[in-house]
């Protein structure tokens, strides 16, 4: 059928212009002016109903391509959400195994199905009853058992084989040692390099080029403060500081007096006292108090025993954490004064970490074993004190002299 075109004679004088496509009658209903063109067959149509009925082949093809594109996008989302979905599935299945009825579940069946279907559900989307149950589950530690325990990289066998170049950059390890015929086909034996935070990408300059004055003899004490805060943060975030760089950096600055307050502890005891006081404070007491702090001392001892290369990798990872927080802070919508205050602290912490990293790289191997022995001795005193005092603690008063107790008992 030939296209019917409205001629200029049928229009008012004011509209006698050059004919345009908008004056073409809809090829489907033959009643209205066409406003659209099908991108596949170039058919002119006036409305959605006419588009849907003009060609089944066109509409089905269009819908199929849109669905395929949506599925491709959802696949990427699934990769980032599979951990949470696994947790929800395990939690839901454990509820059923324990014989709990639907009313006692932390999340309703409807909410769980939404999450499993790919919908993003925030805490505000929960019902009042679900919020109440969720808070109760968090407070009781019921949800923590569903999180897969994280194994710190410094406890893995590969941490004992870290090697750096003379300039401080990490050496590339040959894959031949790891890719053997006995390796599992599913790739569960990860590349050893993935277990350890990468070392510096560029050579570390001598400390003499960073400062005209001699390095402080107290840098080893300051390093211990930083090691503890790093281990604390990674334990708190189950090894995944990337999930919340700003929050992780805030924890580092809270625990470390050197990075967060510009503190200059003069003894190992003073540095550890501050760290343990923060660990036992109301803000972090839920992590386990003194017992958790003693475990972090074990982490610090382990890292010191691994030597300079492991410490450089630790500091490099901590610097990445600080820099990630700085990058995320730029896009965060918060008060300008608050952003400037945090940014200033992060910039200062970044410079301190880099300076100490360069200093660590220059130190002899025996320096770390001596520091490790001192930390072991201080840990022994802390354990003896906790045993004698029954583990009842107070953390308001800072220790000023070596003769005072590490943590004082509540009166």
UniProtKB/TrEMBL annotation:
Gene Ontology molecular function, alphabetical: zinc ion binding
PROSITE patterns the record matches: ZF_HIT (PS51083)
Keyword Zinc-finger listed: yes
Coiled coil: none
CDD domains xref list: zf-HIT_ZNHIT2-3 (cd23024)
Matching Pfam families: zf-HIT
InterPro entries xrefs: Znf_HIT (IPR007529), ZNHIT2 (IPR039646)
Keyword tags: Metal-binding, Zinc, Zinc-finger
Domain named HIT-type: residues: 26-58
The UniProt record lists the keyword NADP: no
PANTHER family in UniProt: ZINC FINGER HIT DOMAIN CONTAINING PROTEIN 2 PROTEIN FON -RELATED, ZINC FINGER HIT DOMAIN-CONTAINING PROTEIN 2
Record-given protein name: Zinc finger HIT domain-containing protein
